[in-house]
Amino acid sequence: MDDSSTINQDNRGTKRRSSELLTSDHCTITDTADTAASNNTTSDCDSSGPYHCLPIHGEHKRAVSCLSFAPSTAASTTVASTSCIDKVVCASASADGSVRLWDISTHLDTCTSTNNDSSNNSNLLLPVATITGHTRGINDLAWSPRASNLIATASDDKTLKIWDVTRSPASSHTSSFASANANGNTNDNSVGMPSVGTGSTSPSNDNNCNSTGDSITDALVEFKGHSNFCFSVKFNPQGNLLVSGSFDETVKVWDVRTGECVSTLPAHSDPVTGVDFNRDGTCIVSSSHDGLMRIWDVATGECLKTIYAEGNPPVTFVKYSANGKYVLSGMLDGKLRLWNVMGGRDTSIMPTANSSKDYLNIGLSSAQGRGGQCTKTYTGHRNSKYCIFSAFSVANPIRQSIVTGSENGKVHVYDLQTRNTRQILDGHKDACLAVATHDTKEIIASGGMSNDRLVKFWVPK
User: Fold this and answer.
1) What's the CA dihedral at 25, 28, 33, 39 to 10 degrees?
2) Closest residue by Cα to residue 309 from 287, 331, 326, 289
3) Can you tell me the distance from the alpha carbon of 238 to that of 46, in angstroms, rounded to the nearest whole number?
4) In which element (H, E) is residue 255 found?
5) pLDDT by residue (tens digit) across 235-270?
6) Mean pLDDT lowest for which of 37-46, 199-208, 273-282, 411-420?
7) What DSSP assignment string belongs to 7-73?
8) What is the CA radius of gyration of the chain?
9) How far is residue 194's CA from residue 347's CA, in Å, rounded to a whole number?
10) In what helix (H) or strand (E) does residue 274 lie, and over which residues does it extend?
11) Fewer Cβ atoms within 10 A, N terminus or C terminus of the chain?
C-alpha cells in the first residue's frame, strides 16, 4: 500500500469530514461483472439533466460534514391544504459542532416549480431548529427509523449523542412529527416548534446564519466508550440499537435506551470510516482505511465476510442497499463499487500483492457462487483525500441512481444499472463531501466544505 493509503498524525486531517478538515426498499440491480476501469458517459453540466438547484440554501459557520433527510414516515404531516407536497425536513451536521434542521416543504410545490437555477439568486433558508452540545465537530448523524423525533450524532469529542428534535429549553411544549401526525396538526413549524427560524428565507447577502430557530442543547442519551474520534453512526431498523465506528479502530454496538455498550468489535487495523445495518438488523458492515470492509453478525459478533478491492485502496464509506443484498463502497482510488454480499462465510484469506480482481472474500473464486465479485463500478467523480458520502436514489423507478459528492465541488449522479454519468450538479465553491437523497421523493441535498459551507437542494425540473 502506498503512503497515501495510510493514516498518521501528519496526514490524518486530509482524510476527514469534520473539524480536522479545516486545518488544510426497492432497488433492482442487475449483476454485471465489472472488468473495465470505466464505462461512463459524462454530461458536461447539470443543465442537461433532470435536476436543478432550488433558489434556497442553508448555511453553517464551518464545513458541512453530513446530511440526512428525515424518513418519510417521520415527516408526513401535510403542510397546508393548498399545497401538493408533504413535509420534507433535512438535517445537516457541521465541523462547527451543530446540527441544523431545514424544512424545505414550502419550496417543493411541484405544481408551481420552475427551472430557475439558484446559483445567482439564492435566498438563505432559516433553520427550524439547531442542535448544539458537542464540544467538537460532528462527523455523522442518523435519524431513528422508529422514533420520528430522534437524531443520533457522532463527534470528534469521542462521544455519541441522541437528541429529541422537539425539545427546546425555550419552550415548555413538545411537538414531534409523530404527535403532529396523530393530532392531525398541519402547522408548518411542527419540527422543534421554531421560535425564530420557520423554514422561511432571507436574502443570502444578509449573512444571517445565526438565526437558528429553537436551540436544543440537552441530549437525551450520551454514549461514552470510544477512545478516539467517533466517525460514523447508524440506528438499526428496529430503532433499539446504535452502531458506531471510530478512529480507535473499533466498532461498538449500543443500547439506545440505556446508553450501555452491548458489544465491541476489534474491527480493523486503521480508523473505521463507515458502518451500517442491513435491512433486518442482523448484520453490520464496516469500512476502514486499512482497505477492508467487513460484515458482522450482530448477535454473535462474528466476522462473516471480508471484502476488498484490487490494490487495497482505503475505504471511506459503506452503505447497504434497501434490499440488503448489496453494499455500496467509496474508496480513495476515486471509484464507487457495488458489492453483492449474499454469499458464504469468511475464510480469513487476506488480499495479496498478486490480487487481480475486486472480489468478496468468502473462500470462493470470483467466478463461483453468489457474492463472488464486485458487480458494478462508478467512476468520474474525484476522491483521493477525503471521506465522501454517497447515496442510493431510488424514489423514481425509471430513474434509479447513485449520487456522490466530489472533491471538485460537484455532485455526480450515476445511472444505477448502466453506470453512466446521468448528470453533474455544479453548485459548490469547495469540495462537496456530504450528499443525501430522500427515500420517497426525487430530492438531493449537498453540502460544501470550509470555503463554501452551504447546504443546497436539487429537484427535477
Assistant:
1) -100
2) 331
3) 38
4) strand 251-255
5) 999 999 999 999 999 999 999 999 999 999 999 999
6) 37-46
7) --TTTGGGG-SSGGGGG------------SS------SSGGGSSEEEEEEEEE-SS-EEEEEEPPTT
8) 21
9) 54
10) strand 272-277
11) C
Instruction: Look up residue 113 and give its amino acid.
Output: S
Residues 296, 300: Cα–Cα separation, whole Å: 8
Provide, for the chain, the percentages of residues in helix, strand and coil under a 3-state DSSP scheme, each rounded to the nearest 5.
Answer: 5, 40, 55
386-407 confidence digits (pLDDT tens): 999 999 999 999 999 999 999 9
CA distance 244 to 63: 22
How big is the CA angle at 70 (ends 73 and 384), to the nearest 5 degrees? 140
Range from 134-148, 149-163, 198-212, 354-368 carrying the lowest mean pLDDT: 354-368
**Cell 452502531 belongs to which residue?**
243
Residue 173 pLDDT more than 90?
no
DSSP state of 385: S
What are φ and ψ of residue 260, in 5° steps?
A: -85, 145
Copy the grid coordinates of residue 401. Answer: 441512481
